[in-house]
Automatic annotation (TrEMBL):
Keywords: Hydrolase. Pfam families: Amidase_3 (PF01520), PG_binding_1 (PF01471). GO terms for biological process: peptidoglycan catabolic process. This is Cell wall hydrolase/autolysin. It comes from Acidothermus cellulolyticus (strain ATCC 43068 / DSM 8971 / 11B). SMART domains: Ami_3. GO terms for cellular component: outer membrane-bounded periplasmic space.
Amino acid sequence: MQGTVLMRLGDRSFAVAEIRHRLAHLGLLSRTNGDHDCVRAACDVFDETVDHAIRAFQQQRGLRTDGVVDAETFRALDEAKWRLGDRVLSYVPGHPLVGDDVAALQRRLCDMGFDCGRCDGIFGPLTEAALREFQRNVGLPADGTCGADTLRALQRLRRTVVGGRPYELRETLRLRHHPPTVAGKCVVLDPGHGGRDTGARTADLCEASLVDDIANRIEGRLLAVGAQPFRTRAAQHVLHPEDVPPSDGDRASFANAAEADVVVSLHIDGHHDPACNGFAVYYYGTARERSVVGERLAELVRAEVLERTDFLDCRTHPKTWELLRRTRMPAVRVECGYLTNPADAERLADPGVRDHIAEGIASALRRLYEDPGEPAAL
Ligand SMILES: [Zn+2]
């Protein structure tokens, strides 16, 4: 289940006027509606046109398409306002610049064969190194800063033929160079929510406790085969109800600092429509690139869990959620059914079913290393 709702259909506030303005800037909302100027401060209503525009935006960006502005959608709207050339880009350790302009720069570098890792819109050290390399190649001072001269050089040299995707290739090769076993691998288990944030809930079940229990069951299995499981948050029973759980960005930083080999984030979905049900797995990806190992793990988790349970198959999907995007290693987010669906809630209340989910995920992790399959990007 997603985070706190900031704005949704029916709301009226100054912030809605700002959102309308951003959507109009992106061409998703017309500036006028008949002779009425929609983006003026008078238009501070989150109406159906805004709802549709938000959904279109979410779909474009690989976010949950629900028309609700939560922290994730708000962040994406904020990042989308930047066009390459709007500001000078450089690496700021600790506070990297994030935005569509950075992603555009990364894509151009990447298409010319300068490897900046993922084209994720985050100006990190790899982007800086690729930019310096590009500058050296075109005879500019290699200062790692994308200003006017570098922009001109980028525009001049923009190649129409798009080369390989160094990131996808490198990720696959890295997996193939691992010893073919999960033993010794650092696996970060990330049970979602926690503390005052219970996630999805019913009268007697809550997402945070259930995913905590599933994480425990996976942890035991991983220890038994010699892997090193780590958790992003303390167990639910030691979290005080007042505690603020870590953000998805914090969870990703934890996995990066731990130099994890792989991340499994555990959630249970919720929806206002009780008919929604099923098991889905998400990995990092956009229309242009994807984590090939993340996708493979997502497929393995889906296959292994559905073999052991009777959840509806809601398949695997690429997403750009913070946890998937900011982790520097393959990561999946597992949505183990819908707590708001009576049949799924009944399954999840059964410790035997939770054990099957855990067994399925642990088995998928074993297969990821023991049976890495053919490199998809070659
Ligand atoms: Zn959740």
